[in-house]
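Hi there. Long-time user, first ticket. I'm pasting a complex I've been working with (about 610 residues overall). I'd like to know whether the download I got is complete or cut off, because the file seemed smaller than I expected. Thanks.
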Amino acid sequence: MDLTPAQKILRATAAWLVTLTFVFPIFWWALTSIKPYQATFNDTPVFFDFEPVWNFYEVVLLGMSRQEATGQGGGAAGSGSGYYSLPAIFDSLIVAGASTALCVLLATGAAYAMSRMRFKGQHHFVFTVLSTRMLPPVAVVIPLFLVYRQLGLYDSYTGVVLAHTLANLPLATLLLKSFFDDLPKEVDESALIDGASRWKTFWLIAFPMVKGGVAAAAVLCFVFSWTEFLMALSLTQTGVRTVPVAASSFVTSTGTEWGFLSALGTAATIPAFIFIVLVQRHLVRGLTLGAVKE
Amino acid sequence: MNASSTAASTRPHNQGPQRSPFGLRLPRFLTSESPVPWVAPLAAFFLVFALFPLLYNIWLSFHEYSAITRALEPVGWANWERLVSEARTTNAIVVTLVYVGVCLAAQLVLGLAIALLLDSDDRGYGTLRALITLPLVVPPAITALLFLFMEDPQFGILSYVFDQLGLISRSEPILSNADTALFGVILADVWQWTPFMVLIFLAGLRALPREPFEAAAIDGASRLQIFWRITLPMLSKVMAVAILVRGIDLFRFSFAYIYTMTSGGPGTVTETIIYYAWKQTFTFIKWGYGATLSLLTLIALIVICNLFIYFARVRW
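Hi, the file is complete. Here it is re-exported in full:
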């Protein structure tokens, strides 16, 4: 049933309206990060009626003191020295990078075997991997917290990396299995018949064909680790502070510095956004563990 | 299963010496047909990081940290008895059910509606589909802060809009009012995750075959009839997956919103079971009771998910 031109315009208007409503909070966040202090706290919302300032980014990302950044005294919110967040961004990069690497390494081999080989209890194995995703993080974090303190892993990179790996492993494994399942079986079967070993078949034939899928799995693991909060909050103190944990500590009982927070929030969203754009095509499959194909 | 004994039995072709691309002799396990070396690292990881916490939680639920002896002391069934009798736990269960139920329903309906709206090949719709995924990449803890900011009674833009529309007065702070606090948190969750539902439904809609729709149009079916009789039933599998995945994730991500926006308050009106378990463990140092609460969540989640998978016939 085709739409009349008037209906088309109506539909497009509605579509834009809905989409922009969803994008608005992000726009508002970015706008707040370049608003002067006073404009943020205005009684009626201020849109473009201000001179943009960059002092929040200078403090959050470059470590300038508030005085250096604005050229004036402390003001209502003190020096702003506690808001330097570049170390948190580095911590997030290290944790997300390492857990992604570990996750993909463990998941690729297992996913290949789950897709290509037949073994006893295979169905149960797939199901076990799936049910690991049903583990509420809080149920994992309590034992890990106690054991980490004994082993000296509390507040260490290794500790958070391993926890994040656990959280993302089911996702990576089942997603990669769905990519391997999509490959025609005949291709690697003929390689096997020609005398290639399993390893050779995997490395020279199957793996190159699912490279895109591996990239998609890696990006999703990275983004989930980058945004994870509960585990990072519970298993670290001051030694390792990921961006979400650092950001949440900006809210204090004496008030919140929204300018700094919006600057960090905007800056922390950009890397994840770039990554997600790269795997847009595989996004749905990844988020549903391969159960819905696009 | 032993890697070396099963190596050659399944595939006679693999008996000859295997060489890597560089001419080096490969270790035996790489040339064998056994799945063990492929699966073992993952299995080992899960044993250590999933099975062990589960068992440790069970053990913990019969123990409690004692501030006097500074050690874990066995307490028998005390934690489980507390679980059944404590009003605050019952409250947390109710809050969780409301939170999960409202979020799922809102995201399903909104997600499907928006997906139907954006499912077009006309110009510009591709951009819209990309734009609407933006909320998904904002870390939930930062989304929570963003909504805390927008719901501020003095300068928050959402409070301003609600006030202008006459829905919630600005003199009633959304997040510190017992009637609206949970709504304020749910708003953040719905904003962040509705786009996820949109993506799932778009994938589902795009995969539907054209013929039934054309046939129905020729037979003169109305748009509404087509939606109820064809689109919806054909999307049922996608919908089941969406409910399952989102339902599970609601337990992972909701913590960030509640922790950051309300800390379970005012009183306990936004205290979900996950948040309560966390609080018992890390704020009240009741490790045993925290573990008991998290076990309850785990058991409930596994039972509900498996029933759902069985009855909705979700396949992986």
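A couple of notes from our side: The longest strand of chain B covers residues 63-66. Chain B touches chain A through 105 residues (CB under 8 Å).
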